[in-house]
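Thread: TonB-dependent receptor plug domain-containing protein, structure

OP (GT): Posting the sequence first so everyone is looking at the same thing. Length is 1044 residues per the record. Can we get the structure tokens written out before standup tomorrow? I want them in the notebook alongside the other entries.
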Amino acid sequence: MTKKKLFRKKQKNRHCLLYVFLLLICGIIFPIQAEAQSQPIKVKSTVVDANGEPLIGVAIVEKSNKSNGTISDFDGTFTLLASSPSSILVITYIGFKSQEYPANKMPERIIMAEDLQSLEEVVVIGYGTQKKETVVGAVASVSGKELLKAPVANVSNALAGRLPGVTFIQRGGEPGYDQATIKIRGMGTMNDSSPLIIVDGVERSSMEGIDMNEIESVNVLKDAAMTAVYGIRGANGVIILTTKVGTESKPTVSLSINTSVQTPTVMPKFLNSYDYAVLKNEAYLNDNPGGKSIFSETDLQKFKDGSDPILYPNTETYKNLVKDISLMHQINANVRGGTKLVRYFVSLGYLNQDGQYDVSDLKSLNLGFDPNPNYQRYNLRSNFDIQMTKDLSASIKLGNQIGKEHFPGTSAYNVFFNLLKNPPMVSPGVVDGKLVTGYINDPLSAVVGRGFSSASILGGSGYAENLTNTFNMNVSMKYDLGNLITKGLSVRAMYAYDHYYKKYETRSKAVDTYSILKDPDTGENRFIQTANEGAFGYSGGTDVNRAEYFESALEYDQTFNKVHRVGGLFLYNQRKVYNPSLIYSVPAGMQGIVGRATYSYANRYLGEVSMGYNGSENFPENKRYGFFPAVSLGWILSEESFFPKNDYVNYIKFRGSYGETGNDKLGSNRFLYLLGAYEYGTGSYMFGTTGLDKQKYTSAWEGKLGNSEVTWERAVKYNYGIDLYLFKNKLSVNADYFTENRDDILIDRQTVPAFTGITSLPAANIGRVKNHGYEIDLKWRDKVNNIEYWFGGNFSYSRNKILHKEEAMKKYPWLMQTGFPIGQQYAYRSDGLYNYKEDVYNRPFYSFYGNKVQQGDIKYIDINGDGIIDSNDVVPVGYSEYPEVSFGINMGLTWKNFDLSILLQGADNLMVFQTGEIGYAFFNDWAMTLEEHKNRWTQERFDNGEMITMPRLSNMGNSSPNSEGSDFWLHNARYLRLKNIEIGYTFPKAMLKKLYLKSLRVYANGNNLYTWTPLKNYDPETANGRGFIYPQMAVFNLGLNLTF
């Protein structure tokens, strides 16, 4: 829904009582002057928007006498007695550009132009807000309304492609576990590089479970000018999510209903039983020339013609596990409104997301449970703002998420691991209502191990459930000290409490299983029971943790002589986390102070100084606290008197910043300055006893040495940016260039010789990484007749380099990680395949697998030229699995009551290894094999000039020369994805009057709809590794939104 339609929806068709109410209020605020000035004039007009729709509640005020004013009625008309014909009347309305007219020149019809920037003029930053035009740091923002266009279950997947400088990687699509990994401006550390998450001003562990109908905005803080106030938590960037609050208006009730169909973005294509057997024979004969094939011609024919589907199944095992479609439902109802004294927003949401496992055959087994994943979530939010007195206000924000995760008794990783390690001719699964897991007198028993069918994997795993309850509470108060001390000064305080409860349980159950015996006389299948159904086994427990947060702040914001604007913030905060799973079960605590001073002159010259001084008890006493300063400057060139007013360059701002921030995310490590616990073992001498039972021990040693100097990482950041508005504000451009030097990265020492006997050295702050990059965000918005359209895009690039990492010196520089990016891939370099015998004879010596190389094998490059292919020839190749380039392209239009929006999202400069079951043929002898291996090298296919993309087949599985890690198996994973598309229709208000509805909109949208990528068989975001991952989902959705 466009901003224009949003405003029209809120204002049109109000009841006459609303008009009367507004007039009464206006009569109080703007009392008509008892004594008319000279030559008073009566002014009457009608206010409409660009489509001619009347605007209700538009404020009309006499500029020289602001107590004289009125508002437009429900027809958009108003009448005002101006003091004189020359009096200037100011017409203002939220979301539209203000206009001014002399009283004697007031047009009969005033057409208000939408102010496309007005709703975005305030952005949320650390511990406060700022006007967009005065921000001198690097901030990216997206509204909650934009996120609703994505029919997904969590926030991170809705954000993908919408924010410059932020990369999202969704590794899988399992319900409840499909959130994306987030990186802001790439990676600056070898440790945890995830950003800090702030929800309604409080640090929280996650934002994923929040219903997107609750979200007002998401702001991303990227440079030190914005993140220094977070001190030791700000180096990786900060994401601030702000939920909706009430408005001073009559109650507005909104209801949204969405029903979605989910389907895998990619289904890998594996060989069926017949093709698998044919290629398996070829692989065996390649390794054993003159030998006998594994599968006979009779076996092959039975696989091919399907004459014996029980003993010779020609199955597609992956498709038997992963079904084509599943459903997802989302419902939300919320109410928003309030008075001058109390404003409220209350929301209730429900999500039900089904999994993708095909369990239709298992229903006949009456297992007593459903192994298909399912995720349900209930969301409740209540936000209240209360004006207690003229100067005292309070805010209460309550959020609750109740989740139920249901999935098989084994992980998705294990499900796909057990599936892919088996050949396609596995046992047939469910036959005549019985779970078949094997054969008696199997004719293929000497040839192939049958392995597990998808039915036996799921049916025999039982099920697991997690019940979670997350409660968040913020209570804050603010007191305006303007009447007591000085105008613009205020004090505020906030207390937040978070509570998380999780009950987890796994129930295993033995089920009836059978083996099939084929009667040699009748050919009929007989079922021989091999295991009996048993009672449910149980394991489980609970996990409870909570966190408390407190802050108090003194704020100042005042303008002097209309040109000097001064602002300030001084804040104290502290946080305590109670979690039994923490090391030593000791609560984790943090405290600190925050300072910020801002100044602007004539809205042209901008300056800001900020700092964070905080610490953590995880570090030694002399290393707990750190000081993190930042300074930023801005110059709005377009506000200079010498800058020519024109229709081409309407606004231009230069900005730059320098600052320091920290990172204390050191994984599960705590108290690294302490000695490790003593460990005990056996030996030749008796040293004493230990423990309550006084057990004797014969040796003792320290588990790990402590480091009394351990502390946080420190990042020094520079940012240079420019903001432009061009062509009558139709085009906006925001561009940034940044650098970062991350020092004191905590890493383990690796340079002590093994002969010292020291095996576990204390971690030390000795790592260093440099990161740099740039980003640009473009938006064009215009209107032609009654078609409003927009398009834009964002592009981000970042590259890092390890400057120092504690590692032993290697023989060659390319064997080191220092000097290369984090996550750099290392592998043998390849130069195609050995196509000719003479090439095989003249090749280097292969130090692995007995130097057995044939035509059709991968040709490795001897990097160091010593005539041997060994680990000294492994070099950095390609890019890491985290993209250096990310981008998004968005466009849309509105025409009459129709609206359309499209989002494309992509990434480049990333590569993934596809090895094991999704790379090599017959990995571990009998693993599933991709159809792409039909394009393998053979002498005949090479001589015929056929397409060859795979090396020759080998029955050696992962013990052949071709299974070495080389760039042959490293694939470019760049992609462009049709991330989101939505088309909607809003019914005319005239049609809705009889239904007492304010608005009704129907829409269709989708997510991950199509992907362009050179990768085959796997989604580019989930492709790295061996394929043991739940597939990513494409979503097709129909929705309804009504307001009354």
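GT: Both are above now. Quick notes for whoever picks this up: The first strand starts at residue 41 and ends at 48. The two ends are 16 Å apart (CA to CA).
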